[in-house]
Amino acid sequence: MGRNVISRTVFKTPVELQQRTQIIRSIQSTKDFDQILGLEKGCTEDDVRKAYRKLSLRVHPDKNKAPGAEEAFKAVSKASQSSQRMRQWQHEE
Q1: What is the pLDDT of residue 50?
Q2: End-to-end CA distance of the chain, in Å?
Q3: How far apart are CA 3 and CA 15, in angstroms?
Q4: Are 59 and 73 in contact (CB under 8 A)?
Q5: b/e per residue, 37-61, with b = 16+ CB within 10 A?
Q6: How far apart are CA 5 and CA 37, in angstroms?
Q7: What distance in Å separates the CA atoms of residue 25 and residue 56, rounded to the nearest whole number?
Q8: Which of the four pLDDT bands, split at 50, 70 and 90, describes residue 5?
Q9: How far is CA 5 from CA 1, 31, 48, 68, 73, in A?
Q10: Averaged over 67-85, what is the pLDDT?
Q11: Hey, CA dihedral for 74, 80, 83, 86, is it positive or negative?
Q12: Longest alpha-carbon distance in the chain
């Protein structure tokens, strides 16, 4: 009772579905890697890893069957890799 089924995934409330869809839209609407991960410009590699873990669980296609979840997950992965490389490169200088 009170559940919405979308593509074999059960969302407990319509609010949960709306939140996940909103996250996916915000990821798709930006190209800045730090903004995708919700990071400040001066953050550390550990901050990048933590943000990636948290966000990747929310948009992982196996856990989130909302439209666009797979593309959002790929964007989060690419943002994490690029941000980590950039910070390593800056740290080496």
Answers
A1: 93
A2: 58
A3: 11
A4: yes
A5: bebeeebeeebbeebbeebbebbee
A6: 28
A7: 14
A8: very low
A9: 11, 31, 33, 16, 21
A10: 91
A11: negative
A12: 58
Q: How many C-beta atoms lie closer than 10 Å to residue 83's C-beta?
A: 22
Which amino acid, 34?
Answer: D
Residues in the chain, how many? 93
pTM of the model: 0.74
Rounded to 5 degrees, what are φ and ψ at 62? -75, -25
| Rounded-to-integer distance, Cα 42 and Cα 37, Å | 13
pLDDT at 12: 60
Place of tokens 């856990």: 63
The one-letter code for the residue type at 22 is Q
The total of other beta-carbon atoms located within 10 Å of residue 24's CB is: 22
CATH superfamily of 4-92: DnaJ domain (1.10.287.110)
- Residue that the structure tokens 């966000």 belong to: 55
**Domain-wise residue ranges, the chain:** 4-92
